[in-house]
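Hi everyone,

Forwarding the result from last night's run.
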Amino acid sequence: MKDAFLWCRRPIAGALPRFLVLACVLLCLIFAAARIQAHSTPAGDQTSGFLSPSAASADSGGDGDGYEDSDSDAFELDGNEARDDDSGTNLSQSCTDSGKDRHRFHDFDIGLPAGAIVNGIEVRLDVAAQRNEGERFICVEISWDGGTSWTPAKVTSTLDQDLATYIVGSDTGTWGRAWNSDVDLANSNFRLRLTNVATIDDQRFELDWIALQISYSELHTPSATPSATPSATPSATPTPAMTPGGPTATLPPGSTPTPTASSPPGTTSPPAPTPIGTPSAGNVLWGDDDCDEDVDAVDPLKNLQLVAGIPFTQSQPCFPLGEYIGVRPAGSVDRPWGDVDCDYDVDAVDALNILRFIAGLSTNQQPDCPAIESGVLVGG
């Protein structure tokens, strides 16, 4: 990819018509995007396998005791059940009714690769209802913030008297939200809540196992190894001229030779980066990498030149690509300038996201990331 940019630099430096310069830039971007697309593709759907909790506690509601008999027996499929006897205090069929027994399960030790995209979450319940009478089912909710907020409930089918397996959710269902896999699935934040619903007074729920499985995609992106910025050709130390058959030439006492730097014939020194000023805090467009108040095809070019180790310029003042700056909104956090997808790394995938935005295609950013070309408040 670097060779392509080196080729483009020649006509850009020359006095060619503007349309030829733009055509060259466009060819470079197309070449780079094709290379990125070939290597930055999802590794295919993968699954975590069914994971068991290692902690549980009764939630408020109903009798206030949830699965009062050995809730830890629901941590593995072994024929020993956690039991909720005489469940609830009323006969409502609502998942949100305060008269229903509820129980939380957590510490699933979900360990997805960093930045993984959650495609679906399935909850498995191996459970039975003691009596085949009335309505009897379980409502399932998920929390991503330690139990402060919950997804809309999903319900099992009618429970059988014999132990059976019930799957709630699917490998393509995200329960109505976009998940930040690095934060939301942590043990400190992730919770499952079961609400037992029955329309007879003395129904007993027997839960042998609760587990969850996450389907996800991992984006494979080659690690970019920036090339070293070419340094100027070292100056040669002049050698006094020799006269055939004569003595070695000497310089006058006290004088100092002044060498003249030169490049090998047929070569030119690469352009040095233009110094970048430090901008004041203010509103900018997310994805406007060169700070020209517009997100266009030049922005991913700057990004790719950074990855390839090629000197480039930005409008002044502008934050250097890769420098951490405060970004608000988006959690008021420090992010590298140019990190368009908010994965804390300025790489070729950021350029690809800008190109896709310009082309009107979908982009792939972290859930808390500002939208490309949206206004954000930044400060150094």
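Residues 275-379 form one domain.

Cheers,
N.
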